[in-house]
Write a structure and sequence with these properties.
InterPro entries: AB_hydrolase_fold, Dienelactn_hydro. This is Dienelactone hydrolase family protein. One of its GO terms (molecular function) is hydrolase activity. The protein is α/β, with parallel strands linked by helices. The protein has a single domain, classed as 3-Layer(aba) Sandwich (Rossmann fold), CATH 3.40.50.1820. Helix content is about 35%, strand content about 20%. It has helices spanning about 40-50, 70-85, 100-115, 130-135, 155-160, 165-175, 195-205, 225-240, and strands at about 10-15, 15-25, 30, 55-60, 120-125, 140-145, 180-185, 210-215. It has an eight-stranded mixed sheet with strand order 1-2-4-3-5-6-7-8, with helices on both faces. It is globular, with a radius of gyration of 16 Å. The termini are far apart.
Length: about 240
Amino acid sequence: MASLDTWTLGEHVHDGVTHPTYRKGEGPGVIVIHEVPGITPRVLAFAEDVVRRGFTVVLPSLFGRPGAPFAPAEVARSFAQVCVSREFTLFALHRTAPVTLWLRSLARSLHEELGGPGVGAVGMCLTGGYALAMLANAPVAAPVVAQPSVPLPLGSARRADLGLSPEDLDSVRRKVDGGCQILGLRYEDDMAVGSRFATLRRELGDNFIAVEFPGRQHSTLTEHRQEAGVERVLEFFADKLRS
């Protein structure tokens, strides 16, 4: 099983907010944003796949215990952290999570260092929409939205909401109109995703590329990993980040 022992521990600071980061690899930059409960061994295994394809990967640790396995106790601990933190939003409509300001800063820093057309970003589950939010004001050239689940799908409005402020959604639309594409992954009957893929198709048109799998499972790249989905993400990064 993959271990964080081979990754370089650092930190990134923006506007007084500090989060640890783990870094490994060489090549264009990719930010892998973990899901609940944190940087689990299977999140790390996906990140190692990205490293092996020739990318510099940065794993921010936003909540949870880095390296801890996926387990009910870890999920409960992570949700407790998220619920009391002002960086995250779980229920708000038409609002961008404050933590995405820190993630945008991380993307700018990585791009300034490595150059190229931009950086890649992948969010999963609770963080699934963050890669889209980063596109609004950061040099993100390859955003991947994996099973976006926030706002939590309670009621039809939240099921459809992208977790973006109106201003950020306008910014995303402008970048998409300029040719940027967004890759999305989900299981077709995943209730946590709600109707967000329909919203993405409506708002972004053909530049939203949906990769969908049959079934009711959830974590397309980690706990319920689909090899075809992982390969599609790696191809997307290679296509968009190697100019």
